[in-house]
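Supplementary Text 2. Reproducibility record for the structural model of the 365-residue chain.

All settings were left at their defaults, and a single model was retained for analysis rather than an ensemble. We include the record here because the model underlies the residue-level annotations in Supplementary Table 4.
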Amino acid sequence: MSKKVSWIIFFTAFVLTLMAVVFGLWNYLGPLLILLFLSLAWAIRHSPSLKGFSFTILIFAAVTASMYYPAFFTSLGGFDLKKLIVPLLMIIMFGMGTAMSLKDFKGVIKMPKGVLVGLLCQFTIMPFVGFGLAYLFGFPPEIAAGIILVGSSPSGLASNVMSYISGSNLALSLTLTAVATLLAPVFTPLLMKLLANELVPIDFWGMLWSIVKIVILPIIAGLIFNRFAHGKFVWLDKAMPVISMGGIAVIITIITAAGRDALLTLGLLLIVAVLLHNSIGYLFGYWGSRLFGLDKKSARTVAFEVGMQNAGLASGIALEMGRVATMGLAPAVFGPMMNITGSSLATWWRGKPTEKEELTDVNKE
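Retained model, structure tokens:
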């Protein structure tokens, strides 16, 4: 489909959607919104500066479908689709492992200050900000616990992508993601026990095992695969990013369908709370790093590591606890939102020089 045709379809869908709203044709609104998002995602794929948003817009199409037609995303032929979440997460984490190597952990020795500051910000700012927002908005206990759970989770691969796009310290980003993920089996249950135990009962050892099973073991398998079979299965190297993105889309869709009723009641408030949580993470991550003396490039990296959490892991934990329709909602909303804000921030920072670049420009003059 050409660029021109894709934009024509989008604008047609936009006009029809607007007409459906104006004339109260609510029965047609669902399909039109799905078409609107799908056509927009395809159209911006033709724009180099905007195509990074296409996946997030596809997520909106999937979420819209699950909100309007939840029955299609809760069970299939009697099979409960929620059972797919953990296996999909394990596949995604395996893919993360194949994209990593032991070199990512050597950054602890090469950049000890950056790693220490990043981890300190990672496991303090987001959990406590999430705790504050959950109580400030007065959410029901399990919804509130979901917000804290997102904040207590480590960063994921999305933060690495944003660090790369923005020209931040990518080596530090890879190291922080790797180390934070390895620390998650201890720190995530510990923080949840401390901050959310009054909202929902937290089984520390049960949560620890869930994270080991969902994250650590698949990543170790991925690291082993990368060490001994890297480059031998080119098709797999190319397929894993696509499989991971597809898996994330399926997970978000299933969780949205499962928690549709709660989202219809609290959706707008939850979106506001999630956006605040995400944005405050960027703000405090950046300025907290600067306060500790990190350079601008590394501070930008920490901002992404703090503000962009592994929402998929949080969803998996919520499922393991039997609360995916409630605790899983905040992670399901957080995932698409952080990709929008992260992409926007990365694009903006890409055009802003760091102090080293400014100094280079001055020397040239």
